[in-house]
Amino acid sequence: MEQVMIILIGILVSVATYLILSRNMIRIIIGTAVLSHAVNLLIMTSGGLKTGNVPLLGHGDGPFTDALPQALILTAIVISFATTAFLLVLAYRTYKTNGSDDFNELRGMSDE
Amino acid sequence: MFSSSKYSNGRRELVTVDVAIILTPFIFAALTPVLYRFISKKYIGWLVLSVSFILFLFLTTYIPRISDGEVVAFTHEWIPSLGIHFTTYLDGLSLIFSLLITGVGSLVILYSIFYLSRSEQLYHFYCYLLLFMGAMLGVVLSDNLMVLYGFWELTSVSSFLLIAYWHHRKASRAGARKSMIITVAGGISMLAGFLMLYEMSKTLSIREIIGNVEAIQEHALFVPALVLILLGAFTKSAQFPFYIWLPDAMEAPTPVSAYLHSATMVKAGIYLVARLTPVFGGEALWFWLVTGVGLFTLFWGSFNAVKQVDLKALLAFSTVSQLGLIMSLLGMGSVAVYLGNSSETIIYTQAAFAAIFHLINHSTFKGALFMMVGIIDHELGTRDIRRLGGLMSFMPLTFTIALIGSFSMAGLPPFNGFLSKEMFFAATLHIQELNIFSLDSIGFLIPIVAWIASVFTFVYCLIIVGKTFFGKVQLHLLAKHPHEAPIGMLISPYTLIVFVVGIFFFPNLLGHYILRPAMASIYPTFPTTQELTPHIHAWHGIFSPELWMTIFVIVVGILLYRLLKRWKPIYRALPQNLSLNSLFNNGISFSESFSNRVTGRYMTGNLTDYFVYIFLAFLMIVGGYFLQTDIFSWSPVDRESLEVFEIILVLIMIASSVGILFAKSRITTVFLSSVLGYSVAFFFIVFRAPDLALTQLVVESVSTVLYLICFRHLPEIRKEIQPKWIKMRNIFISLAVGATVTLVGFAALNYEKFITISYFFNDSYELAGGKNIVNTILGDFRAFDTMLEVVVLFIAGLGVYTLIKLKAKGGGTNEN
Predict the structure, then answer these.
(1) What are the two backbone dihedrals, phi and then psi, of residue B614, each rounded to the nearest 5 degrees?
(2) In 3D, which of A26, A47, A103 has the Cα closest to residue B717?
(3) pLDDT at B110
(4) Which domains does chain A have, with CATH numbers?
(5) Per DSSP, what are the bridge partners of residue B384?
């Protein structure tokens, strides 16, 4: 299971990298979202998968699945959501101001 | 180890005086701009003069004690943890330099009072001059290498300020910048050399380094330290090929040229070489570098001085040449350290003696000559020898200065330059008889080069006198009618002239009281009983070869001067663009344009390029590390089995993520991205993380909505038309990054691990009263994370709000 997950994560990272190397603003933002998915899954996988029960006391006996990575990922999800939202509005704003969503064309703007 | 008891030969109640000697100029430099408001402009120079003269008198009181072999040392702890102490060390060598600095300094200040106009910003001038004087005293009196370096750089800085004193002139600024670049570059390499010395000897005190010099001579850093320190000395003392800043520094006011660029600062390098001769002296490389560079500088400076038409530039080249002479004498004197303590060694220590002797002589006659040029400039408004001539009858007093100064520089009796020139010839003749350091093969060149250089020296000395004071006066070319200088400007050069003549007649007085203790400082390892100081004779006998060398110098020199017009065209033989100045200028402009081009190459302003750099760095550092070490290992053991629906989920994720790459429309992109996010939520369910799954579902939904809202305002994704190689590059980088992450994942998976700490959280009910372990971690155990995460959300929300509400600048519209 872990090995399959890691290969999947590798593919996600490749896709994210390719998207980030693109010129289009939205593709770059989607790339960062894909990258954060990959990282979340990597944290999950490196904590060990399905090694026990749901980490809820009173719902079955231990051993429980490692709860620490879950807490970390929960924090990471919220933060990446916040940055994604900000980036999206920034992209919107950039497009409104400069009339382009292509980074090659945005190069050399007067306020660069 | 640094206690003052080690230097207890200094009397305790007096020791603070030599600290005060260094500090006084700085204190007055700080006071000058303040006092300037209260006292009349007339008196500021006199105040500074009194400071410098009192210091000079203070130092003269040390002469009897120092000549008795006493050493005055005082250690004031500054940064004890680094071994940096403010150690003053006054011995024979330091005393000579400090007397020159304060003595010539006093005369120069006196001269400047009459030279500078009242309309100048005088307090700037005297503030810089006092700074320089203090820094120079610090250089020669410091025993600690780091303190010495600090003062050394301060001389560069104050010299920079003084050269650019008339900062409204372009040439002044250019000259100041050039001298700054060259001397500071040398200073930095000297610092590196000092640090190597520290590494070898574990002390920063020059005394202690000399004390156990045997320990460092076999060290691998010995030769690099030698070369780096010499670089510092050569740049400061304007040796070949670093002399080029000195002629340009002539844009400074003439008192500055007289003081800094003939008598004091340019001799800091000489001081350093003399001071470190006991450390490096026995080395063949030291001998050849110091002697060879010195001799070539001597020749090159005198050769180039002849072609100058500006009197100050001529004197600048002559200073370069004379400094080369002193440097080469110090190099020849270093042989004595190699030979050790034997009877014939004394012949070679005389070279060092001649160096110190000539150093004093040069300060006297060169200072007088600069002041003479200053007078001519001041009274006639020009220094160009093509416009001067026939001034002898108008300015007889100035003419006397020029005559005595030049003839002393040329090495004619009855002036002090004659004595040191004779000793120089004697030293060159002695040195070629040695058969060490491969002197037996090429040593015969030394006296020949020295002799040729002396001929040129003689020629340019004749030019100074002949072209300025003889011939026809060209009144129509002069701005003012020539007349004698005011008496105030003549006092200083005449005082120096008195020394020029006086030293010739009473050289042994100087030798006994001043030079003898300096010789003890250069050769501290020799027993004190050994008489290192020769008795100076003006007359060596009719058959002495050095006398005949001098006679031939005079004969050939006069001949060359007469035929000057015939052979002057050879200076045009060397193309102008091969001169060192244009090399320097081209080097500066080339490095500027080169760095511009390099920066322009990689700082493209293109975001993709920067991402490429970042990813390549990641690949090289992380991937390279994993390739180097064989941490990666593949073990097929799987802890958990894979079920069918999990395989389907994985396939969905792969399909949707790869699909994003090929999506033609933005709606497809958003759709596939959401599929990806929801699949991740499903995985969280599979991995028994209900809270994660919930959050992921909500966040993914909101994100999707956000994407859709934004997309309404953004254009359709255009097809990216890019060259094929960029596409290939991007594909390669993405695959490599993915592969590296996979490798890292596998390596982490199969790596030996510590056991988890999560069992601690299993007690969440007892510790925090919660049954949901993940929530207790977020809310109780690691609540700081959560708090700051909320702050992140808050800031992002504020940012979004601001971005939308912000009034658009320029052409943008404002939409809510």
Answers:
(1) -65, -45
(2) A26
(3) 93
(4) 1-49+64-98 (1.10.287)
(5) B310
Report the residue from B690, B745, B777 with minimal CB separation from A68. Answer: B777
Q: DSSP letters along B736-790, please?
A: HHHHHHHHHHHHHHTS--PPPSGGGGGGHHHHHS-SBHHHHIIIIITHHHHHHHH
CB crowding B207-223: b at 16 or more within 10 Å, else e: bbbbbebeebeeeebbe
pLDDT by residue (tens digit) across B112-129? 999 988 888 888 899 999
For residue B684, give the nearest of A109, A49, A1 by alpha carbon: A49
DSSP state of B532: -
d(CA B451, CA B295) in angstroms, rounded, equals 10
Asked if B179 contacts B159 with a C-beta cutoff of 8 angstroms, the reply is: yes
Mark the ranges of chain B whose per-residue pLDDT is less than 50: 1-15, 809-816
How far apart, in Å, are the Cα atoms of B141 and each of B22, B81, B495?
A: 8, 22, 26
What would the two tokens of residue B483 be?
A: 């007349």
Q: Are B86 and B29 in contact (CB under 8 A)?
A: no
pLDDT band at A111 (very low <50, low <70, confident <90, very high): low
For residue B309, the model assigns a pLDDT of 87
- Read off φ and ψ for residue B436, nearest 5 degrees: -110, 170
pLDDT band at A17 (very low <50, low <70, confident <90, very high): very high
Output the DSSP codes for B366-424: HHHHHHHHHHHHHHHS--BTTT----TTT-HHHHHHHHHHHHHHHT-TTSHHHHHHHHH
Q: Are B106 and B494 in contact (CB under 8 A)?
A: no
Whole-angstrom distance between the N-terminal and C-terminal Cα of chain A?
47
The encoded tokens of residue B238 equal 């304007």
Which structure tokens are listed for B122? 């005088």
Here the tokens at position B153 are 């750089």
| C-alpha distance from residue B187 to each of B94, B197, B304 (Å) | 20, 15, 26
Which A residues, 42 through 101, put their C-beta within 8 Å of a C-beta on chain B? Answer: 42, 44-58, 62, 64-68, 70-71, 73-75, 77-79, 81-86, 88-93, 95-98, 101
Q: How far apart are CA B673 and CA B677, in angstroms?
A: 6
Residues B529, B530, B535, B536: is their CA dihedral positive or negative? negative
Q: Which of B606, B737, B786 sits opposite A75 (nearest CB)?
A: B786
Q: What is the pLDDT of residue B9?
A: 45
Return residues 603-632 of B near A (CB < 8 Å). 604-608, 611-612, 615
Task: Give the pLDDT score at B542.
Answer: 63
What are the tens digits of pLDDT across the range B131-170? 999 999 999 999 999 999 999 999 999 999 999 999 999 9
Q: How many CB pairs under 8 A join A and B?
A: 274
pLDDT at B366: 93
DSSP letter string, A50-83: S-SB-SBTBSB-SPBPPSHHHHHHHHHHHHHHHH
A63 upstream amide cis, omega within 30 of 0: yes
Give the closest residue to B503 by CA, choosing from B423, B575, B436: B423
Q: Which residue in B114, B126, B67, B128 sits closest to B95, CA to CA?
A: B67
Q: CA-CA distance, B230 to B279, in Å (whole number)?
A: 12
pLDDT value of residue B537: 67
Interface test with B, best of A68, A105, A110, A111 (most B CBs within 10 A): A68
Please report where in the chains the tokens 């005369």 appear, as a residue.
B107
Q: Which 3 state secondary structure label does DSSP give B85?
A: strand
CB of B125 closer than 8 Å to CB of B177: no
Please tell me the distance from the alpha carbon of residue B164 to that of residue B161, in angstroms, as a whole number: 5
SS3 content of chain B, % helix, strand, coil (to 5): 75, 5, 25
